[in-house]
Amino acid sequence: MTRKHLLSSADLSRDEVDSILDTAASMHDVQRREVKKLPTLRGRTVINLFFEDSTRTRSSFEIAGKWMSADTINITGKGSSTSKGESLRDTVMTICAMSVDALVIRHSASGACHQVAQWVDASVINAGDGTHEHPTQALLDAYTLRQRLGSLEGRHIVIVGDLAHSRVFRSNVITLGRLGARVTVVAPPTLMPSGIGDWAARDGFATSWDLDQTLYAASPADRPDAVMMLRVQRERMSGGFFPTEREYTAGYGLTRERLARLYAATPDLPILHPGPMNRGLEISAEAADATSSAILDQVSAGVAVRMAVLYHLLAGETEAAA
Amino acid sequence: MTDLLLKGANLLGDNEADVLVREGVIAEIGSIRAAAELDGRRLTVVDAAGLVLLPGLVDLHAHLREPGREDAETVASGSAAAAAGGFTAILAMANTSPVTDTAEAAERVFDLGRAAGLVDVQPIGAVSKGLAGVELAELGLMARSRARVRVFSDDGKCVHDARLMRRALDYVKAFGGTISQHAQDPRLADGSACCHEGEVSGRLGLPAWPAIAEDVVVARDVQLARHTGSRVHVAHVSTAASVEIIRWAKAQGIAVTAEVTPHHLALGTDLLTGYDPVFKVNPPLRPDEDRAAILAALVDGVVDAVATDHAPHARHDKEHAFPDAAFGMLGLETALAVVAEVAVRTRLLSWADVADRMSFAPARIAGLADQGRPIAVGEPANLVLVDPDASWTVDRSASQSLSRNNPWHGRTLPAPVVATFLRGECTAYRGRVRGQFDPEEIA
């Protein structure tokens, strides 16, 4: 695989996704060693350039880089660009003038990573751009699901939440689709992205406004094999997207009652959430902490998947993985 | 001033004749003998065989950025771009810094235009003080000023308050004014909207305006125009539904006019997938159905005019993430060629129709007496020669504009402007303006 950037999940073919997930599995083994260090990226410099707050993604990339022996530097530039009057191009060109090999970028604006990739020589990895995509999140979700379910071919994954503003959803429908999963996305109409009807028809996923109908389908074949809950920002209420928290929870939350009914049919149903969670809003404490919850597995997989991505973009396939 | 003889020009694309210009006025049309002198006066003879002669183009909508952002454009550089594009008159939008909301500000822009002397620069006045959308600007004083402002617009912002729009429409009747509305209800999208709302924006995760944000304001404004008995002009109409509302309103006898931009006719939402901010514009690029509808409306006359919405920006204001970058694209130098590409080459419009949509109609809407006149004896010689059979490749670095946000860069377009004449004087020749070419070259 000779890929320079990872900007969108759509960049990756089925083979590439498989290859990254396989590499991630061997990286995951490294995590369990006492000495968690590979020499693979020794002498390479990876900059984590985070224009937007992030704890888990940034630390996950940082640990991934360090365990690969890359020199990893974090730059948090919250609002540094436009608020100081500096253009995004000037900001990234300044950093790249210090000879970096990869830029891991988180930005509040959709498309920021695509633009940066046009300007710089370094590899660009999208660590979340606005409400567009978050490709490594989708990879770690796929990795986690594969660990739980085996092959995702024909498996039914239900994604619930604020789809309109979710980069996790946008990357997941692509990556899970690549792996042959059936995806249904659920949200109230106001939290569906515009044009999703045509989009879903073209890309072969299903949409629903009714969570219960989706979770408790009459036909066992249509019941979910995994449920992924997305974060709903409380400030969406002021935008008129939904009236109150309790109304959202009643319609779209993974409540204790919904969990019990799901467990009656599928006791080991994997429950995913990209975090950070709003306990009591989109996910109940019972669901977050359920025995089948995969939420901490996702975090653990995050490091392995990001090691695999760094490996694929920076080291190439000529060197052994581990 | 020497006299000018255009030999063998194709007038409006449908009859070939020689045109003699004296003292800035068309003196004779017919078969005229070419000579170095005529009646003892020096004569510049231009071989116009194979070229189409149109009335000088008039742009209802250009952003010249002066005062305030002279790094992006000045009245002089914008005038140069206009002349190179075949224009002899342009209306300068009010959203400068400071805003053109007083007589003094309007006269300043007017005077800068006259000093540059490449096109007639006619300032547009703001509807509201500081474009704030709260109180009326000094519309009457701007109208009475030396600049004789007749078109008022808060363009860049919508006059969204219905009461203010009603008062503005009512007030400008006293001096024959027109309100040019940037139709876009700001409440139907959040403040960060940066493209058309639809499948593409959904996939790209970009905050967007729905088409109805335009439609509902157009619908309201034609009713306000009817109620007040005043004239409303819809700037850069971009949706199929808005066009249908305007069609209906015209059928009711409501005094509404409308313009479309070349970029809304030719560029679609598919261009956004690379997040290149050169395609970020307000109103946003629309899907093919809307493009087809506004083109059809331009052809059948429901849309009266083509206007550029020329919007220069300094490079660093476009080198941000797409949602953070500035809105707008260049248009003065490419407008005629784009119209030729989408409407003339496709035989939807004749050159005579182009003269109507890009000169007669906009001059009429703007109330410019000496512009947009027929090519006839006694009329001011505001003219443009176009090569209908040639093509050219757009090079943003060759622009007269100070900015480079040119969405047409690298494209091959038809119908380059050969020469532009303002009151008989050649202001631009093959992309260069007066001072950049040798007057002997045109002969």
From TrEMBL, chain A:
Binding of L-aspartate, residues: K84, R167, R231
Annotated Aspartate/ornithine carbamoyltransferase Asp/Orn-binding domain residues: 154-313
Presence of keyword NAD: no
InterPro entries: Asp/Orn_carbamoyltranf_P-bd (IPR006132), Asp/Orn_carbamoylTrfase (IPR006130), Asp/Orn_carbamoylTrfase_sf (IPR036901), Asp_carbamoyltransf (IPR002082), Asp_carbamoyltransf_Asp/Orn-bd (IPR006131)
Keywords of this entry: Pyrimidine biosynthesis, Transferase
Gene Ontology terms describing biological process: 'de novo' pyrimidine nucleobase biosynthetic process; 'de novo' UMP biosynthetic process; amino acid metabolic process
Superkingdom of the source species: Bacteria
Keyword Transferase carried by entry: yes
Ranges of residues in domain Aspartate/ornithine carbamoyltransferase carbamoyl-P binding: 4-147
EC number: 2.1.3.2
Pathway: Pyrimidine metabolism; UMP biosynthesis via de novo pathway; (S)-dihydroorotate from bicarbonate: step 2/3
GO cellular component: cytosol
Pfam entry (one): OTCace_N
Function of the protein: Catalyzes the condensation of carbamoyl phosphate and aspartate to form carbamoyl aspartate and inorganic phosphate, the committed step in the de novo pyrimidine nucleotide biosynthesis pathway.
PANTHER family: ASPARTATE CARBAMOYLTRANSFERASE (PTHR45753:SF6), ORNITHINE CARBAMOYLTRANSFERASE, MITOCHONDRIAL (PTHR45753)
NCBIfam families: asp_carb_tr (TIGR00670), PRK00856.1 (NF002032)
Subunit and interaction comment: Heterododecamer (2C3:3R2) of six catalytic PyrB chains organized as two trimers (C3), and six regulatory PyrI chains organized as three dimers (R2).
Protein's name in the database: Aspartate carbamoyltransferase
Species, as recorded: Candidatus Phosphoribacter hodrii
Lineage: Bacteria, Bacillati, Actinomycetota, Actinomycetes, Micrococcales
Automatic annotation (TrEMBL), chain B:
Keyword Nucleotide-binding: no
UniProt GO MF annotations: allantoinase activity; dihydroorotase activity; zinc ion binding
Any one GO biological process: purine nucleobase catabolic process
Annotated catalytic residues: D309
Binding site for Zn(2+) 2: D155, H182, H236
Purpose of the protein: Catalyzes the reversible cyclization of carbamoyl aspartate to dihydroorotate.
Record NCBIfam families: PRK09357.1-1, pyrC_multi
Protein name: Dihydroorotase
UniProt source species: Candidatus Phosphoribacter hodrii
